């Protein structure tokens, strides 16, 4: 029956010929026997082995078949009766997976079974002569490499299933079977695994933070504090996380440490113990570790390499940065989408700027904001310089008098009208908008409501990103066009109050991201609230909460 099943398997998968393996002149009799056992193990739809407490199954089964087919089922983690050093290094790497933000005890890695097999083969003379054990070890090691490699390279869960808002371009696909084959041939298995994790400074900084907080966890973390606690108890809380020096006892030092803590948690930095400060102090070390791990997972969804120059918006931090060669050249406050109209996470190429833009009111805002406002007060349109156009059958738009519309009975879900706000101080887009074409109709723009930038929490938009310093961003982009010698005077163009579009010959990538933890330029942790609940959602998908 086994021979028949194997023959059937070979017919379907064009699998390795066991007889060819056995007669190979390049293998010893023992290695040939191991190869036969490997082929037999992979005949099953889901290869499984009874090794530790449960049946161990492979996860990357199709990759395993492709990999071993190329080598005629030859063992790759042992030679003769000896285990290769690469096998031991891989097990150590699996054991240390927690420092990559992964779960060492993830059953897909089969770490416990690998340790049992290694100990058995190394300590039991009969096991050293058992080709079936060597075959099991070989298959499980290769499977662990593929699973860990995939987790490090592209993340534990497909980014689109993690949240339907994450639409940043993915990494290029990687053939892990060929990747492992090359690593084995060049004796670089350990280095190859390390190279699969993101090399970006953002990810590597989070790894360092994770190590720090694991150490704090091992030391016992910190106890909850209350408003009734003494200053000494609050000081101890600050000392544990590194905000207050061990020998610092002055009131001034304590106040500065408290303000620093508040700053690094994105709340008002006033040196006063209030409700918000207490809430952040009582986030446990375990919760902070979880937040770091979740952000490391998001970094694994990012492209392998970032451009030398790019614009980065961090939604939870309400901020925009312009980065060149890993240095932040510009940084400014932003206003982002409210909870019911969140700013999507994506990347696109900025291609042009509009000075004194019109604002074509989007359908959602027409339906949910504009029509209800006009029903209350017909002068709303005139007051806000909004004009009404009737859409013709051939795409033409003819301006009409708003009073000619029956606003009481207008169908907000389907109407033949479009609405445009003229340029000017009242324009919702302010004086400048920055366009990076995308399917979400999201862009960066100025705003007439500068007062909103005084607030710490700034989720007030309908999805677009408002910025505090649009003139600085426009000047940077135009100087970049001409290597610093632009003769375009943006302020003069604004003063002319005429719409003008400036096409960028040097386009720049824009990343709209969602980071709730990162390391600042000094390497210190910055924590922000989970604005849209994406951390909570991802933790539940991964089974980490």
Description:
The chain has an eight-stranded mixed barrel. A four-stranded antiparallel sheet has the order 10-13-11-12. Strands 1-2 form a two-stranded antiparallel sheet. It contains 20 helices and 20 strands. The chain is of the alpha+beta class and 545 residues long. Helix 3 (29-41) crosses helix 7. Helices cover 41% and strands 17% of the residues.
**How far apart are the first and last residues' alpha carbons, in Å?**
46 Å
Strands, count: 20
**Given the helix and strand composition, which structural class is it?**
alpha+beta
Helical coverage, percent range: 40-55%
What form results from the Cα inertia axes? globular
SSE diagram, text form:
Blueprint: H1 2-13, H2 18-22, H3 29-41, E1 48-50, E2 55-57, H4 61-70, E3 78-79, E4 82-83, H5 85-95, H6 111-123, H7 131-154, H8 159-162, E5 166-167, H9 176-185, H10 189-196, H11 201-218, H12 231-240, H13 251-263, H14 275-281, H15 285-301, E6 309-314, E7 319-324, E8 327-337, E9 345-355, E10 359-360, H16 363-376, H17 380-383, E11 386-391, E12 397-400, E13 417-421, E14 432-435, E15 444-445, E16 459-461, E17 465-467, H18 470-481, H19 490-496, E18 500-513, E19 517-519, E20 525-527, H20 534-542
Helix pairs in contact: 3-7, 4-9, 5-6, 5-7, 6-7, 9-10, 11-15
């Amino acid at each position: 029956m086994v021979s028949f099943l194997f023959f059937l398997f070979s017919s379907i998968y064009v699998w390795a010929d066991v007889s060819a393996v056995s007669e190979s002149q390049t293998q010893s009799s023992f290695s040939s026997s191991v190869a036969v056992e490997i082929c037999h193990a992979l005949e099953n739809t889901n290869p499984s082995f009874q090794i530790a407490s449960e049946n161990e199954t492979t996860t990357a089964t199709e990759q395993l078949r492709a990999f071993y087919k190329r080598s005629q089922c030859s063992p790759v983690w042992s030679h003769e009766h000896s285990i290769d050093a690469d096998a031991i290094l891989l097990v150590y790497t699996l054991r240390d997976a927690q420092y990559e933000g992964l779960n060492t005890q993830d059953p897909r890695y089969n770490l416990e079974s690998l340790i049992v097999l290694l100990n058995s083969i190394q300590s039991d003379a009969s096991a050293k002569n058992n080709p079936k054990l060597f075959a099991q070890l070989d298959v499980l090691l290769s499977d662990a490499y593929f699973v860990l490699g995939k987790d490090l390279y592209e993340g534990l869960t497909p980014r689109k299933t993690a949240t339907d808002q994450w639409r940043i371009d993915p990494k290029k696909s990687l053939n892990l079977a060929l990747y492992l084959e090359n690593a084995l041939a060049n004796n670089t298995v350990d280095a190859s695994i390390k190279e699969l994790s993101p090399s970006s400074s953002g990810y590597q900084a989070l790894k360092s933070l994770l190590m720090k907080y694991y150490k704090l966890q091992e030391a016992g973390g910190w106890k909850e504090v209350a408003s009734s606690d003494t200053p000494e108890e609050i000081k101890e809380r600050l000392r544990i996380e590194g905000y207050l020096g061990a020998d610092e006892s002055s009131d001034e030092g304590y106040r500065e440490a408290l303000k620093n803590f508040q700053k690094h948690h994105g709340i008002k930095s006033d040196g006063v113990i209030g409700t918000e400060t207490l809430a952040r102090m009582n986030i446990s070390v375990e919760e902070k570790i979880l937040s770091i791990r979740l952000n490391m997972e998001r970094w694994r969804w990012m492209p392998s390499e970032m451009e030398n120059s790019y614009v980065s918006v961090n939604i939870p931090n309400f901020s925009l940065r312009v980065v060149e060669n890993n240095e932040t050249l510009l940084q400014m406050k932003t206003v982002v989408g409210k909870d019911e109209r969140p700013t999507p996470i994506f990347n696109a190429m900025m291609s042009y700027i509009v000075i004194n833009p019109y604002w074509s009111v989007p359908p959602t805002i027409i339906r949910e904001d504009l029509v209800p406002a006009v029903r209350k007060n017909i002068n709303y349109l005139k007051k806000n310089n909004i004009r009404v156009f009737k859409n013709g059958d051939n795409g033409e738009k003819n301006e009409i008098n708003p009073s000619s519309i029956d606003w009481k009975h207008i169908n907000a879900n389907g109407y033949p009208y479009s609405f445009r706000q003229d340029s000017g101080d009242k324009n919702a887009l302010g004086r400048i908008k920055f366009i990076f074409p995308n399917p979400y109709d999201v862009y960066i723009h100025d705003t007439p409501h500068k007062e909103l930038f005084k607030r710490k929490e700034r989720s007030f938009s309908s999805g677009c990103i408002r910025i505090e310093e649009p003139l600085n961003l426009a000047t940077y982009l135009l100087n970049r066009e001409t290597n610093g010698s632009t003769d375009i005077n943006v302020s003069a163009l604004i003063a002319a109050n005429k719409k003008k579009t400036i096409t960028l010959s040097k386009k720049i990538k824009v990343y709209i991201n969602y980071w709730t933890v990162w390391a600042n330029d000094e390497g210190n942790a910055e924590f922000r609230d989970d604005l849209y609940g994406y951390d909570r959602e991802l933790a539940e998908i991964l089974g980490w909460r």
